[in-house]
Structure formats: C-alpha cells, structure tokens
## 1
Amino acid sequence: METTPVAPHPDYDLLRPIEQPGKSFYYIVAVLLVIILYAGVLYIRQVYYGLGVTGMAQPVTWGFYIINFVFFIGISHAGTLISAILRLSQAEWRRPITRMAEVITAIVLAIGGLHPIIDLGRPDRALHLFYNGRLQSPLLWDVTSITAYFTASTVYLYLPLIPDIAILRDRGVKPRWLYEFLSWGWQGTEKQHKVLNRAINILMVVVIPIAISVHTIISYIFAMTVQPGWHSTIFGPYFVVGAIFSGIAAILVLMIVFRKVFHLERYLKQVHFSYLGLLLLVMSLLWFYFTFSEYLTGYYGHEPNEMRVFWYKFSGDFAPYFWAMVCCNFLVPLILLGNRRTRTIPGILVASISVIIGMWLERLIIVVPSLANPRLPYPTGIYIPTHTEWMLFLGGISVFVFGYMMFARFFPVISIWEIEEGRQESAKAVSERIHSYMPDPDESPTKV
Amino acid sequence: MMNKKLINSLQVLSISLIWLLFTGIAVWILNLIKESLRLHDSPDASVGISLVAIPVFFTLSSVLTYVFIGLRKGRKKDDEE
Amino acid sequence: MKWGMVIDLQKCTGCGECVAACKLENNVAIVAPKESEMGRTMLWMDMLTVYEGEYPRLRVRQFPRPCMHCDHPPCTKVCPVRATYKNEEGIVAQIYPQCIGCRYCMAACPYTVKSFNWYKPEWAPGIRETTNPDVSVRPVGVVEKCTFCVHRLQKAKEQAKSEGRNLREGDFQTACAESCPAGAIVFGDLENTGHRVNHLSHSPRATKLLEDLGTEPKVIYLKEVD
C-alpha cells in the first residue's frame, strides 16, 4: 500500500491544522503560557517559603497536589488502555479515536507524574529517590510504574505515528528536519508495514498490564497504610475503574472539541460518540458498584474509626462533596446516557464533563476525610486550599491544553494511514471475520 | 546530502540514548537492591519488584530497536524518491 | 536493649510540664498563632483530652502522647528514602538531612505523632540564644517527631564509656520523664529486668494505645483506677 500523496489529499481535513494553522492558535497559546508562567512563579514562591503557602496542615497533610496527582494519572488511563483494548478487540470504529486517546495519556501522565514532586517539602532532595530509594515504599513502586507507563505509552503513541509523519515529510511540511528525523525512513513498503504492525501488536499486549498496574499502585499508596477509609482490598480495582471512567469522559470531551474546532464531522460520527457514550455508561454503573461495595462493607462492619470517616462523608463536613460526586458520577450519566433521546453529542458532552468533575471529587473524598479524622482525639480544622494550590491546579490543566495544542499543531490527531487502511481493508476483514464466527452453511466440505 | 547524514546519525543517537536511559533505570534498580541488602531493609521486596520492572523496560527498548532496524531494512532498494 | 516509656495515668495531673520541657529540650519550633490555629502547631509531646460520658456524668481525661516508637512502625515501612527507620535499640529515628518532605510517614502514622516544618522555623530574639546545642534545628520542609531524646542517650553512653562502666538506669532519661513533677513518666530499658519500666510494663494496669493495630508501641500507659 503506497502513501505517496496525490494533489488534494483525501484526508486533507486532518492535515489542514498542521499545514495552515489558524491565528487563534497563537492567541490561545499566549493565554495558556501566561497562566503556566504565573503558576510557575507561584511554585517557585512555594519552594522558597515552604509548603506553608498551601492550606495543608496537621492532620490533613496531603491536599490538592496528591488529589490532582491521582486525578491526572486517572485521566491518563483513557488513552493507551482504551486504545489498546479497542485495537486488541479489533473494533473497527476505533480508527479515528486511538490517536487522540494516546496523546491524552502521554501528556497527562507527564503532568500527573510531576505532582508528587510539587508536593515535596524538599524538592531539592528529590534525587534522594535515585540513590537512596527504598523499593519497599509504595511511592517507589509508583516511580517505577509511572516511568514504565510513560515510556510505554509514548512509544505506543509514536510507532503508529510514523506513517503519518512520513506523509507530512513527503508533502514537504515545515519544519522538514523534524519530520525527516521522526519518520525513521518510512516508505510504506510491505516489509515496513509488517514490522510496524508486529511491533504495535506486541506493545498493545504489554501496555495493558502496565496501565492497570499504574493505577493499582496509586491506590496502594493509600491502601498500604492502616488508616480507616484507605486500608481496603478493593482499592486497586476501584481506582482502575475510576481511572478508565474519567479517562473515557476526557476522550469524549476532546473528541467533541476537535470535531467542532477542526471540522472533523466526517471522521467523528454519531456512532463513535454513541459507542463511547455507552462505554461511559457501563463504567458509571461499574463505578457505582465498587463505591457501593466499598461503603457498605465499611458501614456494616461498623468499626468506630471507619464509621467516623464514613459519617464525615455521608453527613459531615464532606457531605456536599460526597453527594455531588454521586450525582456527577452516577445520576447524571445514568439519566443522560441511559436515554436514547439524550444520548446525543451535547448530552454526552454534559455527561462527560460531569464525570470529570465527579471523579475529581472522588479523589478529594478519598484523600482528605481519612486524614481529617485521626484515631486519637486531636483538634482538627478543615482543609481549605489556598490560591497557590488552585493556581497550580489550573496551571496543570493549562499545561495539558497547551501540550495537546502543540501536538495537534505538528501531528495529525486522527491517524491518517489507519483510516486509509480501514477504507481499503476493513470491509473485507470484517466480512471474513463474521464469516469465521457463523455456522458453516452445511456439513458438506466446502472451501473456506 | 550532508543533511541526510546528520539526520541519520541523530536517529542512531536517539535510539542509543533510549538504550542508555533504560540501562540507567536498570542500574538504578540494581543499586537500590544493593542498598537494601547493605541496610537489611527488606531486600526480598526490592528483588521482587525489580524482577518485574527491569524486563518491562528492556521489552520496550527491544521493540523500539526492532522497529528501527526493521524500517531501515524494509526500505526500497533504490534510494530514489 | 529496648528503650521504652511507661506513663502512669493515675499519677498524671495533666499539668503539661512534659509538653513544655520537650519543646525546650528539642528546639521544637514555636509557630505563629495564626499558623497554630490552622493546625500547624508543632508538639513532639502532646497532651490529649478525651471526653467520656455525657453531662452530668461527663468525665474529662488527659494523657500525654509522645511518639509510640512502635516495634512494627507503619511509618518507617512507607518512607521512600529511609529518612525514618527503627534503630537497633528500638528507637524510631528521623534523619532530617535525608527527608524529602513527602509526608507519607505522617499519613501512615495511626497515632498522628509527626509534625512538618511548613515554614522555616523561627525563634524570637531572646529564645534563639537558649536553644539546646545538642539538638539540631530542623530545616524547612522536613518531618520531625519525638526521638526519645536520643541525644541524651549519646551523651550518657559517652559518659559511661569514659568512666569505663555500663549504662545505668538513671544515666539516660528523656526530658519529659525528668521534668514530670508527679513522677508519672518513667523511662528505661524494657528488656532489662532491673529497670523500673520493665517491672511497670507488666503491671495489670498496663495498656497500649490502639493495641489492636499490631504496631506494638513501646510507650505503655498504666490505666487510672477509680
């Protein structure tokens, strides 16, 4: 299959943002850079004065930074995991989605991975992890698994990008050296396709367990302690489900944004939203199931310390957040996505945003109440994040938007060659596959 | 053509850097095991984790190298556009 | 050798002398009132209050709370850089220059005994000159807690060595034990049958905080008997 360009490229819609970037790109980038710069200044101030500039205190010693760490890493599960599962299950409708999902992972993971460092009281000593680290600490498990996931997902993003980079190289898009360098001499020969497909197949199998391990291990940070509300065996799968849940919501929001901004209606059709919307609904139900099991076992056991945390969430200081979370993560998606008439693109957008907010609240509800209710009778205040913490949160989101825009500026957000491959081969492959599941017409031996 | 040579050597350099990175990670983990043995600080846990982690990193770099070499070998014989 | 402490709640009057003595002995920073209201008070030895029952049968109990120096400390396990560890004499120690300030040990401690240096510690001009030269002043961004006055142990050991004898019971006392006017705090070697703590820790009144967690604290409380 050749990728030599013909004058008007059939997928020119996907190339336009790279070849002819609009002016608004620069305006948005400027605004984002200002926010990022401001957040950076606040961070330097925090390093200078100490963590006292945050709202954290004793006993709530972990706040926004750890919450956002868990939240961002959760969002990152969108990408590679979903894309790998869809590729593995040979879902043909995946073709325009996988790239977008993988980019989320790579960017958000880098942001999320930085959060524990932002949270350090002594970031200047972060290198102690390298020469005096202790592999028995769950934090070191995290360092290892996040590094593995980040490298794996970057490779998994990069390899399927090579043929598209070659398209851009062949079209002479500037900066030429970049595309020349990254395309690794791709010419689209049969042998090259074979090598690439084999590598992608290996990677998608490797990447799924790594992705699951990452969020499991993040839950272990909490579950490995003996604190009420944290010390739970279902935390691993509970976090993984929550991560995939928030990840799908993030993909949906991005798909809707790109569809609108880049006019990708031809590529991202109702069916993609409808399928992913249903997946989001399933994850919502699964999330509810886990939440229900987690709290029911705590409640029924009625261990006094566990109950203090329980009531703190159900009717105490955190009740507004807790019930908002239940609405955002369960009721809203259930109503909007469970009903065919509201399972439209605007409906899905509302549900997805609601899920993202809800999942952030879930992280808040997991981190803070257990710390705010120590076992011994201490006076406890309430954790109120400061301006610094809010701005660093906003800064993190800005870095994400900025990173995504930079990616979309230089690379196609929808895989051109996979769409092309789909056009040429999918119909045949699918009909053959269907043929293979169906009962054979009769007993007489026929040629398959 | 000078430019092509430069890009070519940069590509080789980048793939070597990836190997260097992953070897560095492996050395780091081995160093942590050594440290935990020295301090009697649950070396069993460290060994267990490294048994999983190190092969993962080397699988990744092997896959990348496989693609890198595979794409070069798979190029058309005549080097014309 | 296994250093431990026995606190007799029958004798404790809740006067708070141990809290003050500890603070002075260990150069524990004094935070501004506003910070203190936020919950950033730094106390290695704290006096906790428990309210039992309801009016008119309300009963207020107070008890001093140092670090428990658990035999199975949940805090040392989670430290990513070995900035906290249990030494061979059973003391759970902090290594301030090693701590990266992740505060994982604070989150993992079921007794919530650790304090964090949210800001650089500062002393009023007069107090600065009276800081204890034997105890290092902690920098900003690290976790600290009760060390069983380990600096006194070092001194006592050197003294005993120079005199060519073994450590005696009275040689090493923590500041809180020494200062307690009611003699409620007794400190010593739990494994040495000659020490009072060994004897007291076998008292029928002996109890440990949150014993069911299996942390095996080396601070033992003697219950009040009414």
## 2
Amino acid sequence: MIRLSLLQFRGQAVVALAALATVAVVLAVTGIQVSHLYAASGLASCPSAAGCPALASALLAKLRGDAAFGVVYWAGIFALYAVPAILGMFWGAPLIARELEAGTCRLAWTQSVSRTRWLAVKLGLVGLASVAVAGLLSLLVAWWVRQVDPLDPFGMNRLQPAMFGARGIAPIGYAAFAFAVGVTAGMLIRNTVAAIAATPVVIGAIEGAMIAWVRPRLIPPVHVTMPLSLATVQDVGTNAGAPASDNLSVSAWVTEPGGWVYSTRVLGASGHTSLGPQPRACASGSWQSCLDALGRLHLQETVTYQPASRYWPLQWAETSVLLALALLLAGFCFFWVRRLSG
Amino acid sequence: MKGVIETAALGRRYGRTWALRDCTLTLPEGRVIGLVGPNGAGKTTLLHMAVGLLAPTAGTITVLGQHPAAGPAQLGRIGFVAQDTPAYARMSVANHLRLGAWLNPGWDEALARHRIGQLGLDPRQRAGSLSGGERAQLALTLALAKRPELLVLDEPVASLDPLARRDFLRGLMEAVAEHGMSVVLSSHLVADLERVCDYLVVLVASLVRVAGEVSALLASHHRLAGPRRDPDTLPAAVEIIEESHTDKQSTLLVRTGEPIQDPSWTVKPVSLEDLVLAYMSRARDEQVRGPRLRVVS
C-alpha cells in the first residue's frame, strides 16, 4: 500500500519539490545580498540591535530602499500562511474525494487491504509530506530573515498576531491541520471541486478563531502596573456623558520590544479607574502643557502583554493545539471511512 | 446446499429509502451465476454488500462462509469487477498490475502478464486512454490475478459495444474453465447471461422470483398457445407465469415438471429472455396489484 501511495503521490511530490527548489534559489540569491548589507552595516559586532539604534536604522533604510527586499520579505510571510491552505486544498481535499468521485475506491477497497490501512497509509504519507513542505519553507524563510527580523523591519515583531503564524513551527501545525481539514471535507462532500472550495473557508475561520480567541489564552499574559510614562500617551480627552468632576480620559500605548501587547490602560493615582477632572491645560492649552498637567496627576498605567521570552512556549502551545485538531480530524476520517459506501 | 453467498433478511437503507429489503437467498458454489433484474432491483447493493464495500443495515450476509469485510484475507478471496470498471485514469496499465501485485498476497503475476499480452494492451498506456472494452478487460485481469475463490462482476458489460462484450465474456469463460472459481455476474442483458451462466437468479424488488440451473429452467418452462379458455382448467402442477388472451386465443408461459398432455395446446420451448421477462413483468404486476390470489374451488 505504501508503494501504491508513493506511486500516486509522485506527480504532486515532484511539483512540490520543484516549487520548493525555486523558492530556495530566490531566497538564497536575495538572502546573500541581505547578508552582505548586514555584514557591511557593522551590526554584527553589536551586542544587540537595540544597543546600536543608529546602525540598525541605517541598515533598515538601505534595505527598504531595495524594492526586492520588501517584496521577498512580505512574500515570505504570505507564503507561510498560504502554503498550508494550498496543501490542504490540493493535497488534502482530493486525496479521498477523487477516489470516491471516480469510483476507484471500489477498486482499491476490494484488494486484499483493509480500508483502515488504505486510509492510514494515504493520510500518513501525504500528511507527513505536507508537514515537511511547510517545515522546510519555514526553515528557508527563517534563514532569510535571521538577521533582519530582530530589527522589526516593518515595525512588526514575530510575536505579533499577523506575524506569529508565519514564523517558527506554527506553519507545521497549520499544514497538518489544513491537510486534515481538506481530507475530511473531501470525504464528507465526496466532490473534489466542492471540497477544494470548502477547505480554505474552514481553515480561514479556524485560523481567525485561533488568533482572536485561542492564542491570547494559551499562556496567561503578564500584567504590569507602573507610573504613566508621558511618552506613551496617545490621546487625551473627556468621557462623553461623565460629570465634569471625573471626565478625564487618557489613552496610552506601551510597546514591548519583541513582545506582544494586548492592551494598555491608564488608571488614577491610587489605581482607581476614575482619573478625576480634565486639567484645564488639556482643554485649551498646548499638547506639552497638557502632558505637564497629566504628569502632576501621578497617573498609572497597566500593560497586559506577552514578553518576548514567551515566543517559543507560545509557538509550541499553538502548534500542539493545531496538531491535536489535526489528529482529531484524522480520527474522524478513520471512523467515517468505514461507513462510506463505494 | 452450501452457498457461496448466503443472505438472510438482508437490507440496506440509504436515508429513508431501502435499496434492498428483506432479501433472503442462497447462491450455490462452483457455478457461474447470473443475477438478473430490472434497474433498482437491488443487484448492485447486494453485490456491494457481498464484496464488503457496503455494510448491511439489516439482516446478515455470509460470503464463502465468512462476513464479507472480515479482513484482508477475506477480501483476498473475492475478486470484484465494479460497474463501469473504474481504473486510475492517469496510471498506466503496467502500474495497475503493480497495484494488484502490491495489494494482493495471492497475486498471479504470470496470469496477469499473459492476459495483458493476449489482449494486446500496451503496458505503458494510461488507463484513462483505454477504450471501455479494454478498461473492462484490465479490471477483469486485476480481479482474476488475485486468484479469487469467488469472482463478482457488477454489470461488467453494460456499457460495452457488442464486440467488446463478446470478447469480455469469452475471456471470463476461459478463466472460469481454467481456474474453476465461483462467479456471480449481474446484468440486465439476458442474452449475455445466457452465453456464460449455468445458473440464473431473477431478483425483483429485493425478492428472488425464480432461481435455478439454466438448463432446468428452460426444460421446465413452456409457452402454450391454444383456443381461448380459462387458465384455471390447467392441472394444479402447472404454474402460470404469464398469460395473455385475445378473443379467440390464449397464450401462456407456464412452469411445470410434467409434460403437457392436452392436445389442444401447442407447446413451444421458451427462450431464457422470455422466461426472465415473464417473471419480471409478473413481479411488476404484483407490486402494482398485490400478490395474485388463486381461487380454490
């Protein structure tokens, strides 16, 4: 059965290898240029990028000046999100659906091989290949960005929601999950085209839910309360409808290098949610005089965030959740394949 | 009688409709059995349950003394050629044979190669570019080279042209003669069944309407023609399968173990096709009107 699956998978594997090889060549050529720029910037001898901001911004200016850099950088992120979905659509969905559609399942299931084994080999082989493709791509991209990612070239670090799934081992989890979604959709819908269409919808919905609800709760975030830093103040105003004695509203945003900030809340001097009346300077005076007035109020701010050190624990946690979902779907497939009629 | 396929109250439901219901039959071993019936009689459903593609909703089925999907060993004892003889369109003929060899411990490589050579198929050709007849032959080769004890074929020739149909059935007959396995073949083309089968089962609406050796069936059924009269005047041992009357004449298709003595009847033999059609139309009439009641005087 393994040999048959290899034979059936051969064509798709060749396409995937060719695509990976092309990507590798593009990344190698452009990656070497990035490495040269990095070496010339002198950042290599700096203990950390944050320690040499002038060197870092000089390098970033050079990189951003090269259109190809931005294209490849964003294409890498896009590819790491798209490839798991594509594998789910074009490897997962047709895997069983095409056999059901063409009736070849009647040929396969009447050989001297149980349906369970038939499914196990197909799922195992193509599933592992999907995971390997996503893993290799992530590795290639990780090599390319190894020097520039710590600089946050576009103001977005690897722990932030839009980036997190396109770095590290998360793409492996997404590939396994997307593949399982595709196979399950194909088995239930029994129509290749419809299954291919349904797969990205399901993957997108689950990925959205992951980002919005699951990931923020994987590890409880850190809460830090500290005196309000005036540099973090974004806006000062009044709460509509609140009495004049307690209508001050201050919004602030704390950035955490390499971290993921959920929220920043401004509190009163004693930690109360009420901030008191709005200072007159803020109603009419200049921005600076308003900030000075705020400084005299001794406000506090509470930051809820994931520190940079949580990156790998979060990567492992999210990947584990995705792998568990994939295994759950695979289990359902084993249950369902026995109920399928040829 | 030891059955190669035995069912008891077998049923299969899809949603709310029963494709096969309360089917009890025994198909004898060592025969080439033709399973004939109208579309929707449940033939495909029955055969799919026999080869383990489908699980029964009700009742039991045993094939070669075992549950059909008992395991790989049981699957290996049954060869199956599915309707429209599916094959992997983009896989070559040679790779289909590899598939057979990889998936079946009892694979007979020499037989497979010999048959493909005899058919003149190019092993490098993709199955998708084969003609219907060639694809059917490939499917039969795969099923035969498993060296099954029972070969099940579901409407294998329904979509073939007459020449391909003859070649296919000839190939089947040669294999049966050489390897001596039991064969169950479904079709609604009686002429084809007549060519290859020595045992016939007529299945209409899940019920076996008549079953027996082809020669015995032909010997015991007659077409009677004579002046119009009440059919109930015939001896009790004569069962009327089909009757039609004009003002002057009656024509009957009857089943009887004894010769017809009454000189007013012209007795003619019946073809297998007429016989099958008579049982099928009687079954259809019964479905419409309910079972025929005989007045006992």
## 3
Amino acid sequence: MLKFKKDKCVGCSICEIICSMEHEGCVNTKKARLRYRDNWPQIGRVDFCRNCAAKPCVKACKEQALSMDSEKNLQFNIDLCTGCLDCSEVCPFGTLPTDGKYPLFCDSCNGMYQCVNWCPTKALVR
Amino acid sequence: MSKARIKIKFFAVTAIEVGAKEKILTVSKDLNEALKEIEKIINWPLKSNLEKNRICLMLNGRAVKMPIEKRALVDGDVMALIPIMGGG
Amino acid sequence: MNDKLPGYAGKILTIDLTEGSFNIEDLPQELVENYLGAKGFGAKILHDELPKNCDPLSPENMLIFATGPLTGTLTPASGRSVIVTKSPLTGIWLDSNCGGSFGPEMKAAGFDIIKIKGKAENPVVVLINNSEITIEAAEDLWGIDTLTTHELLKKKHGEDYKVACIGEAGEKQVLMAGVIAEGRAYGRGGAGAVFGSKNLKAVVVKGNNGINIDNYQEFMIANREAKNEIAISPDTGGSRPKFGTNSIYSFIREAGVLPVKNFQGGTYSGAEEVDEHELVKELYEQDRSCFGCPIACSKYSKVKKGKYVDKYVEGPEYENVWAFGAHCGNSDMGAVVYAEYLCDYYGIDSISAGNAIGFIMECYEKGLVSKEQLGFECSFGNDDAIINLVHLMGKREGFGETLGEGVRRAAKVLGHDSESFAMHVKGLELPAYDPRASFGMGLAYATSDRGGCHLSAFPVKAEVLSNNHRMDPLSTEFKAELVKNEQDWFTIVDSLGICLFAIFALGPNQITDLLYSLTGQKIFSSTEELMKIGERVNNLTRLFNLSEGITSKDDTLPARLLKERLSEGPGKGQIVPLEEMLQDYYLVRGWTKDGKPTSKKLNQLGLSDNV
C-alpha cells in the first residue's frame, strides 16, 4: 500500500518519471500512475489510487475492467477499458490520475514500489 | 608556551553536525597536533573528512595545503572548516 | 514518440508573429552530433540565422527556446532549458537558463527548439498543445504581473499547462527584464524585453509525448550511480538541500570574496548577523525542487516578523541575499525577500536590479544624484530605497527609467567618473563574488560570452573552497586553463539541459554514461568528444560576439577591480592582474593576441565555414 507524506514532499516529480519508465519503458509523466499537483509557491500533493477498502469504482465499471484479487487489491484490465472514466467519477478521493483518455491505477509495481525506491525525501513510503 | 588560543569557525552543515558556529579553544601550537586535539574536543571526524576531501581547512582566510603542512599556530589565529561546495 | 532520436523530442517549431504563422520540421542529426542541445542549438541557430547587427528590440531579433537531451528525464536536476537571443542590455550573445518545469513540458509537447521571430501587431500569447499551435489575442493580460498571469492562463486553458511570461518590465522593454516560468526565471540579459518588443506576453505549453530511452538497462544503472553520488556528496546531499544556494554565504564572506557596498568593501550595521543559519531559522518554510531534482535547493520563505511580515518568495537565493543585502549595505532579510518577490512580480533580473541599486546608492552618497531626482533618500542600508527602486525599475518610472537600462548606461548619464564603479562586464552587471580575492573569477567575468556572469565558469570553487594548493586565489598561475576548461564543461551542462548543481557531485564520466545510454549517439560516449562540443559552442558564441562588435578591449573588468585595492580581508591590498591571465587565456583557447579564434582552431572544430 502506497502512502504519501506531504510534509516531506519537494515536488520533484521523480516519482512520476520513474513510474512512467517502469510501466511504459520511456519517460512520460502523463502516463504515470501517480500525479504531482503543485500549489506554488507551496508544495502541493501527489495523487494516486489508494486501493481503498470501499472501491466503488469496481461496481461503477460497466466493462468489468476493475476487480479485486484474493487480497482485495484492485486489479485493472486496460484491454477492457473504454475510457468512460466512470471510475474516476465515483472515486471517493476524486483525484484519480488519467492520461486524458484512460484512468491510471497504481499497481505497486507488483510490490516493487519504484516510486518509493526513487523518492529522494521518503515522501512516498509503503 | 607550547599552546595557542585560537578561534575555529564552522559553516553550513558542519556547523549543524558540530553543534556550534564557532568555538574558542586553547590547543597545541603544532598544527597537526592541534587538529588531533580539536577532533577530540568537538567529537567530529575531522581527520577523515579532510582526507576524503569533504571539508577544506582554512587558516586566517587561506586554504591549508594537503597533506597538512608543518605549521605553528599563534594566539588569535582563526581556523575555518568549510564543506566543499559549488556555487550559488 | 520519435523512434529515430532517443533522448530528444525530435522537432523544431518556428513561429512567425508578423505573419501569424508557424511551421514544424525535424531536428537534424547534424545539429545533434555537433551541438548537443539547449545552449549549443541556440548558438548554431543564432549565429547562422540572425541578421548581423540587428536591433535586439526589433522584429528581426529571434527568441530561441531550447531543451537538451537530458531535459525532462530521470537524470538528476533535469528541469532546465534556455532562451537564446541577442541581448538588448549588452548588445551581444545571451543564453538565459531556467529551472523549474517549463523545459520538460516543452519537450513533452514534442519540441527540442521553439524559434520565435517577427512581431505581433497586438499583445498575444502563443499556446502550444502538442502540435496544435494557436496565437491568441492577449490584450486583457497586458499590464498584469507575472504571478497573476500564470493563474489566469491556467484557469483559462487548464492547470496542466506551463507558462513562461513577462510582467510590466518586459512589456515596457526594460533592458534588464526577464521571463518568469513556473516560479523560476530566465533571468539575466533582458530576454523579457525581447518578448515585450514582439508584443509577446507568454508562451503556454503542454504535451504528452514520451522521451525514448536507447538502452534502458544501462540508463537505469547510470541513474542509480548518479542518484547515489548526489546523495553522498557533502554539497548536493548535505549543505545544499538544507541551506539552498545560501549554503556558501558565510564562508564566502570568510574568504573575503563577498562584495560589500558596490564592491567598496567595509562593513555595515547588522552584517555579522546574516548567515545561512539565520535564513533557515527566520525565513525558510519548505524545500522545493525543480523537475527531476533530488537536491531540493529551492525554498519557500515567509517573513515572520518586522516591517516585511508576511512577505513571501520562492527563495531568497544567495545572489539576491547579496544583491539586496551586503551589496546595498542592508541587513534586513525581510527587505531581501520582498525585493526578490517584486523582481518576480515585474519580471526583472534580480542580480542586475540589485547591482544597479548598490551603484545608485554610491552615486547618492557621492552627490551625483539627489534626493529630489530620486524622490527619496538613498544611502547604503536604506531598505525603503531598495524597494522603491525595484518598483521604479519594474514600472519603468521616475529614475527607474534610467537605472533599468543597466549600470553601464546609467553611468554615462550620471558622469563624474561613475563609470569606474559601474560594476559590469560588457554591460551585464556583476554577481556576488569579488575577484580581487579570487583572481580566476576575474578572468571568468572578463571572458564569459554573455558578459559579467558567474555561471560560465566558477573558479571560486577551485580557488577558495578546495584543498588543491595549486589553485591559490591570489595567483595567476593555471587560471587560464581552469577558466577555459570550466567554460567548455559548463557549456556542455547548459547544452544538456541539467542544472550546474548536479555536476558538483557528478563527473564527466558519469555524465557520458547517462547521455550515451539515453541517446545511443556514439559521439556522446566519449568525454573528449563531448568537451570538443563545448569548445565548439564557445568558439561559435565568440564569433557571434566578434561580428557584433566585441573586441579584446571588452574582455576587461570595471576600473574599481583593476585599480582600487581591497581594504581588508584575505584579499587585502589586491587588484586583479587581468592582463597576464587574459593573454594566457587567449593562448590556451587557440585565439590570437586580439582574442580572435585562429583559422587553425576553427578548422579543428569544424567551424571554418562560419567566419
């Protein structure tokens, strides 16, 4: 489970960079599963799917692209996704990143948590 | 007298690690001896930081050559330990 | 995504504001191999395409935004980009460098280079959304400060856009006006005035193109090593994250290199109380990073008490703590915060502005300018005068009209030998280092391609902050090689699109590892070839300057530094022995005694067609 510690964040976007590299093989922060949103001149926050207990997105998805695994972690199948973004609508936090068309769900890099490895200030932790 | 009363200044992160911006100490006149004594007093790895080029030693505003030259301190000398930095 | 050029966006956007048209072309391989990126790209384009001797404030001048191959990547401190243009302040070469996030966004939109020519009939904003380019009317933004301009443009077009804009100073073509982008600045040399002369209020950009990586595994290995080096360095992993650029403040002062009261020296009330620890205690509230940077040297500061309570700034930076502080005999750091904030607000270079204020304070104390002329008292230490003058320069009003044109022009207006203490080189105001206590820095100032600059080479590090006994700050020995090598190396950094602070921890081999694994360009795998590119770019900027009228006579320092001896400190009694260093420098550069690249040197660098 990924956690964000706002008081440690410096707004560097390294989490976005490494996330996009890990998942897409190139650098493209618009495809990262987390998103830094600035609040200049102060530090803003990093948003990502928190794998919450409620998961109203699972029910909301008409294509059944969203499901839960045996450990109740969110599973997303992009091949079934039509980009309707209903999941984003019902998200209780209202901050789910998208790439403009499709939603971007954190999958913890299969437990590797690259963003946690690369965050220079330990603002992202497991 | 084989001792000298000197001022040592610490800067940036070194000041935080040592816990002071400056100290006035009475130490051996011989520079090398004095550095050993200072290391004990401030409880900070002075010698190894110098050798690893993590700090620069200045005496009265001029950098001290490495390896530490043989030198006699006098009362009123001002020593400075500076973290090696780039610019601003 | 561009399959051909990993590391690069792959396209050049050219906008003609007169015609209201644009065109997009591919980034040529020859430009990449010979000029690398950012500053290098700008040098080649400005040299080749700018009409000779053009008026920098005419439609003929060009604005060239450029990123480097490392911009926007995992490489440490990868947020940087440049604006290259002919400076209206100096009349010569200008590359103005900016951190933050504008450069990475420009690259994400798909462009390594954006060239802007001509002049719009009325105020406009250029809007870039990937390859959708719009030139939009912006009369409603004219007269608005840079901070509000950012807010309004993002509200109108979307929060995910990044903005580079001018304030009132640029609009009124104040010669030291800069361009503000996402809290950082293309500060020096007057790029903001060039924007204003084109009726260009802002460039607004967003994009979602990726940057390809040639060898993913090697790139990750190189980045892990770089990450580690940055973290263990006492600079980038120690003092700089804690104190920001002010980490050097008190020992620069200790070394006698901190200039006081327009380089006159001496002391002033409260001087000893200012240091990096006080700034942390009294002002700093949060750490901030530019894009891709683990160092987080930037700070959000707020004044907690006193006259300037509640004033805030992203900063204050070392250069401004000096320029509005010791340089003006002022120890009120609240005033420094507010002055720096106002420079952002109006969009004006804080180093030039602060330097000019110290200059006019000396003029005031010498009776060359009166209270009546200024409208207020203006002795050293008068913080009200500092704030008043920033307002006046930003608005181009009152005495600010003259002062905003730079100290070189202001000295001509005021006369009475004020030229001898107008502290500039080639028209660009000097920053926070006194070269009479650091001779190499004097050579660096005298020979930088854009004028009095501390970022083209930085000998202060080797002379003052190093254990290497060869670099005696009060000796001329080895300084020519030092300055030449640093200029070439720093030019490479400025062409890569990363921050200089990264190379206080990373060496050339680590840089080539990062660059080669990212781009796959064979020529970038050799540090020798890379240094050659740096040398090529610096010779090209020299050729540009020569054709714009620079001669070896301009490779000089203000009379104060050549004739007035420092009165105290480690540099006591010194003046800068420039001439012998300068002749050594020309020799080391392969230039004639008159400072011109020889044909042999130009041949060696593949530049002989450029004369």
